Amino acid sequence: MSNIVKKVGFNFTFNPVACEDCQGRCCTGESGYIYVTKSEALAISELLAINIKQFVSKYLFKKGYKYSIKEEKINDSYECIFFDRELNGCKIYDARPNQCKTFPFWDYYKTRIGELKDECPGIINV
Ligand code: SF4
Ligand code: SF4
Question: Where do the structural domains in the chain lie, given as residue ranges?
Answer without folding.
Answer: 21-119
